[in-house]
Amino acid sequence: MLPEAHRDNTFLCHHETGMSIDPHLADLLVPYMALVEGTSVLTTSRITSHLETNLLIIYSVLDIVTKVSEKRADPGTLWIMPAVLRQ
User: Digits of tens for pLDDT over the chain (87 positions)?
Assistant: First the structure.
């Protein structure tokens, strides 16, 4: 378990970005977002390597299109859409 001071700092770093999803949850939501109809969008306080890996795995299995607005370690927005909605 993380020391209390570190836990507080991690929460504050996420909270200060104003993004809706913390980086530990964002990668876990990818499979569910890929299975729903239409476009799914989320904002996260940090793009992680776990998120990028999950996107690659889901892309290799399902016919989807993904887009991430920023580079790794920055806050960003993620879009997942069925391939039929490609533009």
Answer: 445 555 457 777 766 878 889 888 999 999 999 999 899 999 999 999 999 999 999 999 999 999 999 889 899 999 999 876 544
pTM over 0.90: no
Residues 75 and 43 sit within 8 Å (Cβ to Cβ): yes
Say if residues 23 and 45 touch (Cβ distance below 8 Å): yes
Q: Which structure tokens are listed for 5?
A: 């001071």
Residue 3 is which amino acid?
A: P
Q: Which residues are catalytic?
A: 50
**Domain extent listing, the chain:** 4-85
